[in-house]
Write the structure tokens for this entry.
Amino acid sequence: MPEPIETSETIRLDVLRYRPEEEAEPTWQSYEVPLRRDWMVLDGLNYIKDSLDGSLSYRWACRMGVCGSCGMMVNGKPILTCAAYLTALAPGPVKIEPLRGFPVIRDLVIDLREFLDKLKSVKPWIVRSEEKPLAEGEYLQTPEELAEYKPYSMCINCLLCYAACPINALEPGFVGPAAIALAQRYNFDSRDQGAAERLDILSRHEGIWACTFVGECSAVCPKGVDPAGAIQRYKVRATADWWRSVLMPWGTR
Amino acid sequence: MNPAYRPHHPRWHRERMPIFWWLGQPAYVKFITRELTSLAVGYGALLLLAEVYTLERGPAAHDRFLHFLAAPPVLVFHLLVCAALLFHTVTWLNLAPKALVVRLGGRRLPDWAVVAGHYLLWLAASGAVVVWLLRGGS
């Protein structure tokens, strides 16, 4: 006998909630949501917010993997919840937690300020020692020069790489994958002249040397940025610079 | 009501990393294994130094060292060390293209070529040692 249409399948979402005004520690709460073929994990959370429990807090915006706000730990792995089908996680239950390694403000909402400070510290913008006069026109770039840094410019600051990085959780001072990858994005830009300034900041322990090359940052990146590769290339460059300064102290960096 | 809560002053929750954080996922287990097998690399270097030291002390000392190496428990242990060394070498060489960008004629070499280059160098170095040994080490 075919099942009646009303009793469609459901899936259980176990959400880690943190309500600082009520509880000192986060607690799990379970919700049953419809298991629809075209629903993402984020749609399940929106269903909870709309129909079951309006007090659930989480970030989201674009629903199409470009804004980078809906990253969460789903079954222990950092993913964009707008890009993960619920059916792929059936029969459940699906465990949803805030991104690991960040202070939690409420429920699934993490505090981004530490990351934003780290990001600013690596000067992720084009640094020029002197600007050329307007009359000389724009800074031109060949397609090869563009290809050099383009992969690193695809970062959407979703912080999945930080959540996948055990160093970020163990050493909160670590500048971290996305910020270092973005530093490289400008280092590799033919218009930029700030590589030496950035190296001064990133050659400290909390910069590139805290990284032990776990490599998971690149594995979870939804944009294929490869922060692990960016950091290892940085290490090679810093080491080469150090040897050059030792062997040829009269040369300029 | 949580007594530590103050209105208008957020009280962040910071999750502590458990000491066995790496046990949950295969990728983390592989990483920790790679890091731990570096102990085998250090041990291999010390073993070589020990042999050079016994050589310097004369043939009798070196024979005692070889006798120690031939003992079954030592042999089994060194097989394990060898497996750890192989794991470390292979995982390490496979990661090389992440750190090394090689350009030939203005074009970037693909990752597999960088890896293949490393394996060829490894093979060549090992081959040279084998040839040297087969010729009686002279």
Q: What stands out?
A: The longest helix of chain A spans residues 227-247. The radius of gyration of chain A is 22 Å.
